[in-house]
Amino acid sequence: MTPGAAVDHRPPVSGNTRLAAVVGSPVRHSLSPTLLNAAFAATGLDWTYTAFEVAEGDFPRALDGMRSLGVAGLSVTMPHKAAAAAAADELTPAAARLGAVNCLVPDGDRMVGHNTDGGGFLDGLAHDAGITVEGRRVVVVGAGGAARAVVEACGAAGATDIVVVNRTIGRAGSAAELAGAVGRVVPPAAAAQAVADADLVVNATPVGMSGAAAEGMPIDPNVFRVGQVAVDLIYHPLETPWLAVLRRQGIEAHGGLSMLLFQAARAFSLWTGAEAPVAAMEAAARAALSARSAG
After folding, report:
1. Are 87 and 122 in contact (CB under 8 A)?
2. What is the rounded CA–CA span in Å between residue 256 and residue 261?
3. Were 178 and a residue from 11, 121, 137, 152 both cysteine, which residue would form a disulfide, CB within 3.0 to 4.6 Å?
């Protein structure tokens, strides 16, 4: 055993072992097997987790196969989240509002669709910054799936003002509507004032991601002030150029690993009924990301 490696407390794989999986395309890069197998290993639950490449448009057939095989839990990533919402027998309120499912939980013969992304963001914010969004002003940059989940969750959790900044105003408006009466749209040209007034600023764009074509800063760091909190939903690299600049300026700034970690922790608990071993999951994720960076 490698020195310092986590101990796997699971029994050997057998006919009693329960299977969970993630489906997506592409899915080889997914950290979900690392996170969930670390959780099962730490708790000693007789479960294992793998990844299945499922081409766009093939999700309904894949779900039929999962039902037939008795898969005990299913994570869903791009491009299948909308298809999963359409195929689920029941949706949680958040999943219904978002029209997107990232976690399917068997309930007898039924599949219940959840979206744990927004809740994972809130859990991660509490873990990293020790705060909630209740009574706070929030700016979300971007209007894709992650941004929509954050906007919906912040609205439901009591944020008093949620500004969505996106180059495509129509997409920004669709995202802002998820926050209800507290949601509004600000064009990028007017974002500086909204950011200056905010308590929490979230980057939900790919700007700064490893291998991404987009370069630069999602929001000018010079408009920030000490006392604000910034979150970059990117987790690879663990520190984006934007985070690095903000931290040098004394701004409290956090990366996106915690959102990934806690959305997976919520899935683990939904499937097993057990508390997720977050520390073991985080350690495994950080080791995997370090290995990727070294490679």
Report:
1. no
2. 9
3. 152
CB neighbour list of residue 38: distance below 8 Å, 6 or more residues apart: 6, 277, 280, 281, 283, 284, 285
Residues of the chain with CATH 3.40.50.10860: 18-115+261-294
Q: Is 158 left (phi over 0), alpha (psi -120 to 50) or beta?
A: left
- Check pLDDT > 70 for residue 1: no
pLDDT single digits (tens) 147-184: 999 999 999 999 999 999 999 999 999 999 999 999 99
Class (C level, CATH) for 118-255: alpha beta
Q: How many CA atoms lie within 13 A of 23 on its CB side?
A: 28
- Structural fold of domain 18-115+261-294: Rossmann fold (3.40.50)
**43, 274 Cβ separation under 8 angstroms:** yes
How many angstroms separate the CA atoms of 110 and 22, rounded? 18
Q: Please compute the mean of the pLDDT values over residues 13-29 and round it to a whole number.
A: 97
Q: Which residue has the tokens 């989940």?
A: 149
The label of the residue with tokens 């992304």 reads 117
Residue 133 is among the residues annotated as catalytic for this protein = no
